[in-house]
Each structure stands twice: as C-alpha cells, then as structure tokens.
C-alpha cells in the first residue's frame, strides 16, 4: 500500500506554536506514525510543484491523507480534478479536521461542508456509535482530548454512509466527527480532530483511528464498471 | 388519521411526582397536544384488557405512540406479535424515551436497544443533524431541555435509516436521540426525551417534534407486496 | 407550493418523433399532469434568458423538476451555482431520466453519474423496493413500461439515502431507478423513466410517482442552520 | 479466524439430486473452498446435539455461515438466542440463500424476510452496485449463473446498511441479492445464490464472494460498549 500524506504546510512556516508542536510538519508527524505499521508513506505539500501531486504520484497512490486549512483556495482546480478522478477510480481518501473545507472534499460531497467552530481549549470526547466498524479497532468506548477546537452541528454534509464517531464538546455542541462515504470505486473517511495548535496527532488513539482509516479506505481490485453504450440488443440472447 | 397513544401508566399511579406533573397521565398529556392539530386521538394503557390494543383497535389505528418503562415485561407476547404485524402492514409507530426497551421496539430492531443512563437533572440539547427532514419543521437549530435524564452512547440499535437529532448532555455524553426506520410498509420514529419526573411533554418544541413524527410515520396507500410462489414461468412472456 | 418544470426543449424542436409525442414539449406534458393536483406550475427552458431561471424565479420556487439530455454543456455555470445554492437552502429537486448527466445533478452527487444505456425498445419493470415510502403511494408492486431506453448498472452515484425503485430490463440489466438524497436543507429525488421518443410521461403510474416526488421534496419550514464562528466560550454557561 | 459452516443438511439425505451435486453436503462444499484461503473451518449441522452449536463452539467462532431451508422450525429457540447474543458480541454472520427465512436472520432483521420465488431454471445476473466494497474484490461487473431459483422483490428486509448486488432474473424480477447489516458489534452479510438443486457453490465467483464475505464480517477487537447506570454526576468533572 502506497500512502501519500498531503499537508498545506503553511501554519508550520509562520506560527511558532505550530512548528514547535510539529517540527517536521503535520505531514511529517502523520507519516511517522503510519510508518510504524510498515506502510510505505510519502508526503506532499502545497508549495511543491503541482502541490506534489503529479500524475505519476497520483497514479501510484493507493491512499491519500489530506490536511489543509487556510490556503484551500490556492489548491489548483486541475489538481483537484485529478484527485477527484483518482478517488472515483478507487484511490482511498482520508480527510482530516479543517480539510472539511478543502476543494476535493466539497467536490466529493456536493455540499458546502460548513460547520460551527470555536477556539476555546475545550474538552472533546469522540464517542463510538458503530462498535462493529474496523476503524474503531483497538480503541475504547470514546477518545478524550483535553483541549481541541470545537466543531459543531449542523455539519453540512450528505448523510454519511457510515457514522462512526460523534463528538461531545464542553461548550454544548455535538459533531459527527467520523464518517465514511463511497464515491465510485473510492472510499472516503472524514475524521475531525487535529487543530494545528494542539498536539492531537501524537495521541495514540487518534493515531490508531487514522491508521485504521488508511487501511479501511484502501481498495484492492474491486470491479471496474463499464459505462456508455451497451451492446446491441440483437446480441443479447434474452431478447431473441 | 387515527392515533392511539399507549402508555404503561404505572408511575402515574405510584409516584406523586409523576402524577403531579401528568395528572391525566403521560398518555393524556400527549393526546391533548396532538388533538390541537385536529388529529383523532385515543389512548390505551397496560392495565386495560389486552392492554387496550384489541384486534379492532389495532386494525383501525394508523399511528401508535408508545411510552413504557418499568413494566415492559408485563406486555403480553401475543399483543406484541399483533402490533409487530400491524407495523409491517403499514401502521406508523412513534417510540418515546424508555420505550427503547419495549418488546415491540426490540423486536423491530433486532438488537438489545441498551444504552447508558443517569438521573442527575442534566441539561440536554437535541441538535438537528438533518435540517431537510419534515420531522424538524417549526423548530430551531436545537431543542434545549433544562433538566432531563441522561441517555448515552453506545445505543445498541441498527444503523438508523435517518438520523435527525443528536443529544448533548452536561455530564459528557452524546446520544442519537431522533432516528427513523423502515420495517415492511411501516415507518418507525424513535424520539428520546420524556423521563416521567420532568415536564418534558409540555415543552412546545418537543410537542412539535412528536406531532411531526406522528404525521411522518403515517402511511397512506403505499403498495402491498405479494409474497410466495410467483406465477409459473410458462406464463411469463419474457421466458417464452 | 410553486413548482417550475425545467426542460432543455431541444429534441422537441428538431425531432418530429418527439414533437409528435410531446406537442407542448416534455415540460408542457409534465406541467399539465402536475396541475391536475392543483399544484401551481410554471415552466422554464434552456433557450430562455438565464434559461428561465432568474433570481426572482428561483427565489420563489419550492420545487424544481429537471429534464435535460443533449445540451447539458450549454447550461451556464452561474445558473448551476444558483440552483445548487437554492437546493441547499431547501428548494426541492426532481431529476428525470437523462438529467442524471446534468451539471446540477453531478454537482450535488460528487460523482460522474455515468451508466450503461441502450436504445432497443425494451420492456422495463420498475419494482418497488421500499413499500413504506410516500413516493410509492397509489401505485402497484411495479410499474411496467412496454418500451423504454435501457439504463444499466453500474450507476455511478453515491449510495442513495433511500432506494425506492429498481428497474428490470429485457436485455439483462438492472438499474437503481428511484432514489433520494438529502443535501443541506434540500431534498432530491431521481427518477429514471422518460426517454424522449416514448410517451412515458403519459403513463398514469409514472405521473403518480412524479406527483408524489414533487410533494415529497417540498420542504416546509425546517430549521436554518447557522454556520461559522460560534459564540465565545465565556458566554457559554456550561463552560463557566 | 475460526469459521463454522452450519447447514441444515436435510435435502442431502433425502434428495439424490442434491446429494449427487453435494456429496459432502452443502456445508462440506463451502468448507472446502474456504479452506483454500487457509481459513480454519469446521462444520455443524441440524441433527447434531445442540445443532453442533454448543457454548464452546460458539464462544470460539469468529464467523458463522448459515444455510437452511425446509427445517427452519426445528432450530431450537435457545440456540437461536445464543447465536443472536454472539452476533451482537461481534461474531460475524454470513446468511446464504434460503437462510433468509431462518430464525436467526429474521430475529436480527425484525421483519418477515419474505420474498417471491419460482423454480424454473432461470438465468440470474448479480450486478455489482457498489464497486468500492471489499466483498466484490476479484470479480467482474456481474456474476452470471445459468440456472438458479428466482427470488424476487419485494424482499421484506430493513433497508440494508450497504447494498452490494442486485439480481436480474430471466422471468422479469429483480432482487437485492447482496446486502450488509450492523447489529451490535456484529456484522451480517446476506448473499442470495445457492438453491440446493444447482451446483452454485462450485461457481468460482460465488466462492470468491463468500470468501470475501467471511473476511468482511470478521470483527477484530472493536470496542465493547458498557451499558446501564453511568457514574454519578458528582464524579463527572464537567458537572461540578
């Protein structure tokens, strides 16, 4: 399995709080713990040519992990189109935290993906609401994060195919914080936590969920549909 | 539309806190506000013959509302079987609060319907997660109840067909508190609030949701499937 | 309820087979039978200024019905954006037949919406797979159309929220031919039949389904979510 | 992974057509091809003590495969209860063909699980409608079976969590022939083909689907929910 962790990598360059927490960048931190499971991982960032997502890279990627926040608009439409096409062809996609507002996630969802938010060092509890789902393997009934940014409903997404986590926040909000979607041959997993000013991606349970998510969205050899004009009726035995 | 509000009606007989809040019983309170919408409503209770759910009553009922708590085990299997059959035939069912543990709800769900609970006068906020659903007509982004019993995940139900409300509780839990299910020709709506020691069923927004739910589960003249041995292949034109 | 039936209206201008079947256009035929139910209906077509979908028209429309086929590319992006916004705000959308490839449907779905097709005068049977759904009111177990264009799986759509009809075709294919989706406050119903060279929209059961669909997608006064920065934590009582 | 293939094993004893096709019983044929993937497989049948499903066997079983047809009523309630409990605890369940009418499947579904059927040597095509699902790995766009029993809609099941296959039959019917359900910690996969008088379980693509299904329902170490009275509010830091 070839995984690419994509990160906007801008907060890390301008905000010392973020670069202190993530000296190798958010992408570096995520790549590090994925590699613990012997997954082959590369990284790509916004400021690389073609955002690091060349045709070659995309064609060889099984799973793409996406973190973006303040520079969604700088992601080129043509790269978004290519990533979209690859997801429909079967490339898995894991979208993290503020990636909810990325062009690729909005394009796959068909909605605004808007939500409520507040930065107030609130406690978050991510409750498992589907304890049969492999994405929850190895964690407990809930994950507790002492401080996180709040994301609150309504989250303007289509009804998820599978809802796995629902978050509770100290200030009175809830959020559908782990959800999956099928798009073409591709599988998509959205996972909420990971504001850049908190060390969330060092949390072992968060890491477990992301590892599980990467494995879950990986698609091995499912059928490739054929579209378009079907064979003439004269060649269909049933019609004779 | 003929609605029957069924209530166990036991707390009302033994606990003055409950009978003070609901002098006409929980069923009486619910029937009262449903009648405001010119819905024809009757009530039925556990201690009536056949629990008030005779063949005649059931055959004429379009929507059944169910509240039960401490006497689920006293509901006769044969009545449960009849209600189950009527739901599959198209009778709507609205299950309230502790009705999650009723025989009829468990039979329709196929799971234990178990959950966490705590009686501690906690604030509850029911957030709307599907603002397109007619059950949310006329309410705001969330319903706030100053004091309620807590119900927490995991709620052992099948994945709902539609998830409409998610509750936040002061003590740190969340709950899928409004959900729908299709069973045969019947529609089922589960709605969480309504512990017997709180005046929840006088809350106008709670009333609006229950009114909406009753209308939503009401089934008018959808097709009746035919089951069993299909007509012989010789009579199928396509096969000739 | 204000309904607008939108039609590309091109086949009608160039193909006498089509204009003979639909002398008032496909939009005219659909508008006619919707009016039988005392629904207020107007029509709009591609060649009108702004495709007949001005800001004023859209703002006053509760439900939009969409038929397009060979000129999807001529629909202006800015009109698509406006329709998309209105759906998320709560305008219902009924997409018919070859409208599966319209810009608005693809944008709402996030997928290619591709499929197999064949024009061979095949028999179609649309089987009801959800006999609890109000869209099936008044019809039988299946709708049979003597001759229709074939649409076959795989249909590249997201998993529908509700799957109502599955079509059988003489030549060996099946198709998810009636499906619903929630997007923001809006409800979407896709219904397969209606190739321009067949008199499908005169079929009484097809008309019943479209009437039911128009009523089902109509949204009355559900909550309007608030997005963005939530109130400061200092003003949240729970946090104090 | 420990798999038990359960079979009623009655047709094999009385009908030479069946015993000629399946000399080792349907269970034997299924066990044989599962073992090709180095899965540890045992079998159990109706006429063994406790139907071969003792407490010890059930407690050690990760995935149970179920085939039954004419003797569903002979399966003891207490065994059904134990299997049900194990599914909710996380044991995977694959239900095949006429197992749709088994006590365990009906109990898990909450519906009659009724359907249409016809024995007329009809061609069946199982079309993949979710090409992202791991259960479809290694097969083509559809599986074609030259002769099978027909099962037709309406199939009285709850809306599946995931719909993977839809069957086309020569005589004019369709059927949701591959579907999944979450129940507690358990995953359930229903797969239609396999009438006892056809050599369906020797079909390589059918075998691939069943192998995939067995792997897909196997649950490894997802969280075990805690139910009941939650800790007192005084011990909840948020409430102080």
Map the helices and strands.
4 copies of one chain form a homotetramer.
Chain A: E1 2-7, H1 11-14, H2 16-21, H3 25-35, E2 40-45, H4 55-60, E3 63-67, H5 77-89, E4 92-96, H6 103-109, E5 116-128, E6 142-152, E7 162-169, E8 174-183, E9 186-191, H7 204-217, E10 228-229
Parallel strand pairs in A: 1-2, 1-3, 3-4, 4-9
Antiparallel strand pairs in A: 5-6, 5-7, 7-8, 8-9
Beginning-to-end CA distance, first to last residue of chain A: 47 Å
Task: Round the mean pLDDT of chain A to the nearest integer and report it.
Answer: 96
**Main sheet characteristics of chain A:** 9 strands, mixed
Helix content bin of chain A: 25-40%
Radius of gyration of chain A, in angstroms, nearest whole number: 19 Å
Assembly annotation? homotetramer
CATH architecture annotation of the domain at 2-111 and 178-221 in chain A: 3-Layer(aba) Sandwich
CATH fold-level assignment of the domain at 2-111 and 178-221 in chain A: Rossmann fold
The count of helical stretches of chain A stands at 7
**Residue fraction in strands of chain A:** 25-35%
How many strands of chain A?
10
Shape of chain A: globular
